[in-house]
Amino acid sequence: MSQFQHLTLSQGAHEIVLLRIDVKxxxxxxxSLAVLKEINEAVGGIRDQGFKGLVxxxxxxxxxxxxxxxxxLLSLKTPQAVDAYINLGSQVCRRIAELPFPTVAxxxxxxxxxxxxxxxxxxRRVASYEATVNYDYFQQGYYSGFGxxxxxxxxxxxxxxxxxxxxxxxxxxxxxxxxxxxHRTPSYQTQAVIDQFFQHLRESENTTPxxxxxxxxxxxxxxxxxxxxxxxxxxCLAKSPSEQQACASIIDTWSEYNISEDAxxxxxxxxxxxxxxPLTQYHxxxxxxxxxxxxxxxxxxxxxxxxxxxxxxxxxxxxxxxxAQNGFIVTLYDTRNSALEKLLPELNQYFTQQNIxxxxxxxxxxxxxxxxxNYSLPHADxxxxxxxxxxxxxxxxxxDIESSAKxxxxxxxxxxxxxxxxxxKNMQTPSRLALFNPYNPCFKxxxxxxxxxxxxxxxxxxxxFAKSLSLTPAKVKSATGYLGTRLMxxxxxxxxxxxxxxxxxxxxxxxxxxxxxxxxxFELIDEIGITECLRIAEALADRRGIDVPNILIQKHEQxxxxxxxxxxxxxxxxxxxxxGLLNNKLTTSTNKIKVSVTEQRLIEKIINEARAxxxxxxVEDEDILDLVATMTTGFPMQxxxxxxxxxxxxxxxKTLTK
Amino acid sequence: MPLPPQQxxxxxxxxxxxxxxxxxxxxxxxxxxxxxxxxxxxxxxxLSRQPFDSTKIDNVIMASSQTLDCSSLAEDAARRLxxxxxxxxxTFSGNEGVGIQALSYAYQAITSQGKSLVLLGGVEVVNAPLxxxxxxxxxxxxxxxxxxxxxxxxxxxxxxxxxxxxxxAMPSDxxxxxxxxxxxxxxxxANQSQISLDAQAEYVNLSQRRLKYAxxxxxxxxxxxxxxxxxxxxSSDENVITLxxxxxxxxxxxxxxxxxxxxxxxxxxxxxxxxxxxxxxxAFIDEYNITPLAQxxxxxxxxxxxxxEASLNKHDLTSEEIDYWEWDEASAAEILALxxxxxxxxxxxxxxxxxxxxxxxxxxxxxxxxxxxxxxxxHTLQRNKGEYGVCHFGFNSQNISxxxxxxxIGDTAGRDT
Lengths: 658, 417
Prior knowledge:
By secondary structure, chain A is of the alpha/beta class. Helix content of chain A is 50%, strand content 13%. Chain A has 27 helices and 19 strands. In chain A, the strands form four sheets. In chain A, strands 12-11-10-13-14-15-16-17 form an eight-stranded mixed sheet, sandwiched between helices. In chain A, helix 1 (33-46) links the parallel strand 2 and strand 3. Chain A is globular and about 80 Å long. Chain B is α+β, with helices and mostly antiparallel strands. Among the domains of chain B are: 9-128 and 270-407, Thiolase/Chalcone synthase (Peroxisomal Thiolase, Chain A, domain 1), CATH 3.40.47.10; 135-165, no CATH class. Chain B has 13 helices and twelve strands. In chain B, helix 6 (177-192) packs parallel to helix 11. Chain B is globular and about 85 Å long. Chains A and B meet through helix 14 and strand 12 of A and helix 1 of B.
């Protein structure tokens, strides 16, 4: 058989062809154009050779096929290149599916995106116990277009397909439950299972291709009923604008072509369109940026495994969970037992939401020690201060931490508004203190702001710690509000000022969402907490001369906390927003501001602040600034961030003023 | 005073969960804690206080009087604490004296087998069926039974919820297991030593009062709170005697059981709890520059009633030289009978015995209770600057044990001689 660069073709027992993918000079099997061409050639070559079966497997340990990576997709700069790539992938999958003999995909380890398309184009799938499948293209607003979606719909129906795509990573057990893999075996038995399968076929003299049963929802009447139901529910199935985009495209294709041959073609065409959409391009750039930020950073080692967190607020609990998940032994200390009591219910809720297995739950919970006493501080390798935003209290606490902690311990603060110099003024060695401020849990993001005055070595250690927690570190300069908080507060403050000019809260929130912002400002304030917002606003006001909106002070004086207590600007029941405002007299107005005015004021403020941050050197990289601004302010994703938007406006010779 | 030369064994530190009749209680959305969970909670906190990590542990020895589901306590603890794979964890189970048996084994592991750091734990849970018929399930079954048609039965069937089958801890008002086991023993002691009901009531009151005092003044050391999935927690021992002193006295006097001398309130009640101790050799103490709580001397187990005397003689000590005592409060009658012995004539009152209350007030999870006594005595010695203390376990003539402790800090200037 002919020699290829990225795969090997060999003949096994019983006239079975073994196609092992082993992409050259890469730790994983990335489906670049060259790899697709080779697979296409290989599959075309074996079609009429009289073989009795094909097994597609990977030579990489713990990986099957990873699909196209971000760099590959971003390198498709012209519509023609996108067209050529997706059509080739579609052709490869079609060729595999149309082979005149049984085909099996052997999935060991992780299988991503278009790798799953190739697995689906095989007639049978055998997965090891450790196998996982993740179709994260969907979360980024597109799909590969290789025909995998139509094949999924054929097997499990549209509703389960959408659920499957939006669920994220799925284990072999879950795939077996959905009948998407035929056999689930331990790794050492996969080969035996395949041999047995072909032997069985040989003995029964059945060499005809297996045709999977079509899901009943694809027939005429259920299809129309399902379509009606899904049109109402598609917003629920899709969690973000990106998912909504992909979801709408899938439903449209299905409603028009169902699972006919034309559906494969339509899927390819839709994928080409989606891949070039601004939203998808933004996600791809974002992924690439994260890869860049993570490049060269290694995970922590050297026996550093004891983390002591002081403060069991939402940030403390989030960091504790993250540390425990990543194998650190965590002690979470707080003098308030009521705060400590919140961890286990929250953790349990997270486990249920994420569908985490019982053994994993026990492993994570075992790693967290809740303590109303501070015994663990002197023995911790990493100490994280995560107390409420009160400058003097933080500074005093950090002084005590320094005197009790080990000399070699890493001292981190999760402040989001006070500069390191101010917090470390009482410390003997101020340069020991570093910033470690994850954007989660407020914003569902894996980005963490890091900053230090202790030099490059110190910064590298903190970045390694972030990497160990599967977070992406973004280096920022120590300053009031750093980057994320500063941009966010500009957005929130301006929204409150618009409201104080007698405009309705509901209409401001609606308009913000209408103009493409990801967050409604007043809902975001409730989410963060009114007290926290006020503390941050006051800190920024003192140091940067910004006004604290009266409405925030009034709400705080009324004793309102936000979403957690069930009442803030809006009312909440069991964490779900209720219709209407909490206090109509205080917060509503008859005036209705024009969308364009709101848009202009909010966008202008964010852009100006972003420019100021760049000018002051808070962050060196414009891409990071755009990314953070999009995340914390909810700046419309399709604009690619405030600076990118400004550039686009300048290029088009336009201004913000309408 | 010279002590017999031997490889010293030190009590480095210890922690325990609160003792409570429903410590493992149900939490919404999850099952009750298991014995392994309780042990892990105590052990995890204990290790977080140390300058070394779990990989330094040479052996894990666990004890529980129960045999059901407790056979792999030590293996499970070692795995969950991430100890090294080279360990050969040992689990003791099956009788009430397992705590002291495990302690003897741990002691031997350091003195004879050359181990340098041993994690010793004891845990008790009240046996409960894995699936019990909850009130909701019983109610549901009645409704289902009353449903006449198939459609009605189907409707009722749809209301069946998995939470009805949750594992449940024993409710607090079920018969007292410990009482039924020890009633005859306490009766015998009371008859033999002519212990009156008044005296028993007075002692139960004393134990209860001391526990409350200790709780108010935070002298019950190293209690690790247990947190639950429903957002609640338990951080102090349950006061199992709910009656006030006067009512208690009246209850003891007016509600005697068949033999008329011992009642449920004058026998320690069974509770749930876990306790973990770290024992170390001299070399380990020196390596990490640790200040231990106490030095332990060889546990003395004897079949005869003069185990304390034998232990004191072995170490060339007299009862007057022992500063504090921690006696296992299996029942008030037995404590009072022991106090009448000639050996304790010099002790005019209970002012050196069980200073922080005992099992009568807190309830007694056997293995955990025994280790708790050692931990509490070491703290009492430190707090009151005493030098020697003796823990005494078991009143059954077949199985009496004592262990001598010496304050390891060395500052015993305030020692009351």
